[in-house]
Amino acid sequence: MPDVFDLAKQYFQRYATPMDLPRRYGSSILEHLTTPDRAIEFRLTIQRDDGTLQICRAYRVQFNDDRGPYKGGVRFHPQVDMAETKALAFWMYLKTAVVEIPFGGAKGGVAVNYQALSLLEKERLTKRYAMILADDLGPNKDIPAPDVNTGEREMGWMLDSWRMIHGRYDRGVVTGKPLSLGGSAGRREATGRGVVINITEAARDMGMNLAEATAAVQGYGNVGETSARLLHDAGVRVVAVSDAHGAILNRKGLNIPTLSAHVKAGQPLNKFPEAEAIDRDSLLTLEVDILVPAALENAITEKNGAQVRAKLIAEGANGPVSPAAVDMLADRKIVVIPDILCNAGGVTVSYFEWVQNRQEFYWPLDRVNSELADVMKRAYRRVADLSQSLKIPLREAAYRIAIEQVADAAVRRGVQ
Known about the structure:
Strand 11, helix 10 and strand 12 form a beta-alpha-beta unit. The chain is built from 14 helices and twelve strands. It is of the alpha/beta class and 416 residues long. A seven-stranded mixed sheet has the order 9-8-7-6-10-11-12. It has a five-stranded mixed sheet with strand order 1-2-4-3-5. The two termini are 33 Å apart. The protein is globular and about 55 Å long. It folds into two domains: 141 residues, Rossmann fold (3-Layer(aba) Sandwich); 153 residues, NAD(P)-binding Rossmann-like Domain (Rossmann fold).
């Protein structure tokens, strides 16, 4: 089976080929757009609390900076590898182009069971990662952000490590920081909020009444929980959710605020008393109006794509639908809001945070949410209009817009 970076390039080639880029921009343009600028792999060693050493593989991929500094999250997960990191950096530079914010794409991570570490071990690992990459990161060079198993705590640690090495405060070196260290209001829920803004716009185009709709959300982390909560607030009946440990179903609708309190109290999601436990994989094939895959890559593949019964899929995760499954869903007229558009709310508010850090002037939450809504609605409408005019899926329209923007920037800056 191809690795995730090969799958990412398959998407790109599929949608770039009809654009005839070599004729318009030169024969090397496709290689330029599909080859990372730098791919860094290194050994990261930390001392455990018992005095023993633990060695992990660590990565940072800087994929493309034709439109601005590299931008992308850092994830700590046992499955992190170079192929995944390249794919996520690849998608990130396309994502920033779709929503027209002036960044390129990057991604980083460490292959580690982060949850098994103590608090002090987590801090050592995070700061060691930032220390090794200190000369590769910076507010005008490469700006990390949270991703899987990282959050504002880790971004605060990375900021402190960079500051100690460089001897100065520059809050814009990372985004997703605590408010007390220059973070932005609304950053934590920005990705999920962007997902729901896209769902609202797509539902309007489809004639779907959200107050009568049902939804299932795969993944109850930051993105999935926020998406479920905002859908619940909009009147959608969220009937099923899942996390790494299991899935639950209540056909009358889950009480999302109560469920979130249950999970935040440290209780297992699949032990929620107001729902029945179901098989995790079965959530993806429930008969619902809206499906939000907000976990990891390749959730929907050729193995289960024919069983998916949702009318609208909103890709909260990166790459949750494999290329083979894309055709299966399209043949069945299932509308898919692609990841490079749907989950771009996080990087958009990261951009807002970076802007605020540069000005040292901070926005209230209502302004952040208003600006986010404007960016996401404008990007969705641009993609949807191209989709309708060319009679192509939303994914192809989003890729065409992103590829055109980056190819034009690459040639205009004279890199060919």
